[in-house]
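Tutorial sheet, problem 5. The two components below are modelled jointly, 509 residues in total.
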Amino acid sequence: MGISCKNLSLEYPTLNGSVLALDDVTFTVNREEFVCIVGPSGCGKTTLLKIIAGLLEPTGGQIETESSAGGARPHNAMVFQEHGLYPWMTVVDNVSLGLRFQGVREKQRHAAAMVFIDQFGLSAFANSYPHELSVGMRQRVSLARAFVVDPEILLMDEPLASLDALTKVIAQEELLRIWKDNRKQVIYITHDIEEALLLGDRVLVMSGHPGTIREVVTVPLSRPRNMRDRTNPAVVSCKQHIWKILESEVRQGMKERRAKVGA
Amino acid sequence: MPWAIGLMFFAAWELASRAGMISPLFFPAPSIVIDTIIRLLATGELTRNLAATVGRMLTGFLIGGLAGMSLGILMGWSANVRQVIDPLIAAIHPVPKISIFPLIMIVFGIGAISKILVIAVAAFFPMVINTTAGVRHIGLIHFEVARNFGASPWQVFRHVILPGSSPMILAGVRLALNLSLSLTTAIELLMGRDGLGAMIWLSWQTLRIEELYAAIFCLAMIGTLFRYAVIYLSRQLVPWQEWNRP
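Model answer (structure tokens):
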């Protein structure tokens, strides 16, 4: 049930000619593998994820999967950022959304949703609306919503980006714990290098203009992970290595932004 | 507090009218207006006019409102439809709806159809504008979520577009109801044989001022009642909205 992206590219037209958002992106994700994509903002990470999710069509290359479903695309579920929850649905309705669209009856889909609502520690809030929850809780609802449809592959777009540093640590641990019990392929997008190293088996380092994969780093950590791994010397040196790849681009981006503001 | 101010206002009016400080002919005391309302209810005259006005208003509102909402959803959903219809709406919307009443009468005659049609036209515009804005206001991410989880077009409509636009639609309902009531009254003033507007006109002509006040009071009550109905409906339909929280 692997997934492989071959020479993916995406070009889109603008008023000043066409822009190459992704160029020659090639990588594979193996069965039960947790792959993180790290890169500065605007490097095309989210675009890549949307292509894998089927929300965008690539202009070049292809995605190959040995999907058990036999379709062209793997059965995937995307974990959107917390504002992807439907404010008009309660937690249990949000979590069971995918099942509802599949036509599963309310009683069954709520029962299935409750399993993950329990696992994410949200049982007391099953009938609350998203606006009644904290950002961290909303993010857990978003995660639960993707797990419930039992996808072959989970696509996560900076799911923990809006959390504060302390909550984030807890959320990362929780995510790994639940992933351990529901092994899926994961593609996890983040701009947090440390997070990528703590969660992933491999880290794809991406840079932008056009979006390309610069390097694939294998994380020198075994599982289960521990949040104390942050200070592990192997992780620290990996982090510095990745930062070196991205540093010049981040600085360049800042310079361009400053120039724009100046002009 | 608002209640207290209202009560004080009516008390002052009552006293001033009784003491003759303001002309009781033009400003009959509130107690006299209430007596008149009770009397007209007893004879059935007020009930008949009330029913005529509310019936006309609601029929027009439902026809125009549903049409506006349906078109608004299409316009919000499809950029093509929006590009064609939007300029038309922008052009027609500023026209005072009462001004096209004679035109409608030429085509549809002076019967009930013309009256209801012009009310429907008035209700149509706030509904189509608000519904379009409501649908367009739904974040792209909500559509992406629906697509990613495999929603059919009907499911997108039922679970994303309808609930997502309902706060704006309900705001449109409130505007449309107000406009419908105004138009209904205006039409009845112009040419109604029944309805509260006709009652106002008749009592003005015959200088039965207390009946004029009775009719105005009833119109105010209708407006207030619909206002609370919409607030109640909002609490039921969009309990997730910030401003509906207790």
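Marking note: The interface with chain B takes residues 50, 53-55, 76-78, 80-81, 83-84, 86-89, 97-98, 100-102, 129-131, 149 of chain A (CB under 8 Å). Full credit if you identified this.
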